[in-house]
Design brief:
The chain is mainly alpha-helical and about 180 residues long. The chain has eight helices and four strands. It binds iron/sulfur cluster (SF4).
């Protein structure tokens, strides 16, 4: 159960996560991440392992703005995006609620996924640089929160997603009210 303070923070993230300079600044960070990944070419076997948190013993952390950015755009990503929001609010399962595909190895919100997903590769050769790059880009995301006077929170993905999706109007069995 979220507190009023958390719900107020979620409303502030949602206010700037749509068509707003804060969202544009976040997209610029994502573009820099993509450039770096393309330049380094880490291997990804698309196994979906890193999205099965309990089995992989992996926890994904994201910022409040990133969660809001994803929540507003998830329905436009397709059925897995919309249903993922409902699963998130319901607190269903242990994996990422956006896992998609017959073998559940695909990301249902690939274009709008958070930095932690963009910069996570099991490729052993990528461990050092991906950690440093993640730290650098995370500082930039934090600076966006400061520049736009929105609360900064870096928290576990499923919990933050449930909070923000709930405030945005997603319900366990219903439709989402918000759109980007
Ligand atoms: S948002 Fe996509 S890439 Fe990230 S954990 Fe969920 S399914 Fe995996």
């Amino acid at each position: 159960v979220s507190s009023e303070r958390e719900r107020r923070a979620a409303r502030q993230w949602l206010e700037v996560a749509g068509d707003h300079p804060a969202a544009a600044a976040l997209e610029a960070v994502y573009a820099r991440a993509a450039q770096q990944i393309e330049a380094r070419g880490p291997a990804c076997w698309a196994s979906g392992r890193c999205c099965r948190f309990a089995r992989a013993g992996h926890r994904l952390y994201v910022t409040g703005l990133e969660a809001a950015y994803c929540v507003l755009r998830a329905p436009a990503c397709g059925p897995a995006g919309a249903s993922g929001l409902r699963l998130a609010v319901a607190g269903a399962g242990e994996d990422c609620p956006f896992l998609d595909g017959p073998a559940r190895t695909r990301c249902g919100v690939h274009p709008v996924k958070p930095l932690g997903c963009r910069l996570y590769f099991c490729d052993r050769a990528a461990q050092d640089w991906q950690r440093r790059l993640h730290e650098d880009l995370l500082r930039e995301v934090r600076a966006i929160h400061d520049a736009h006077a929105i609360p900064y929170l870096y928290a576990e993905w499923r919990g933050l997603l449930a909070l923000v999706a709930g405030v945005a109007g997603a319900t366990p069995g219903g439709e989402e009210r918000s759109s980007a």
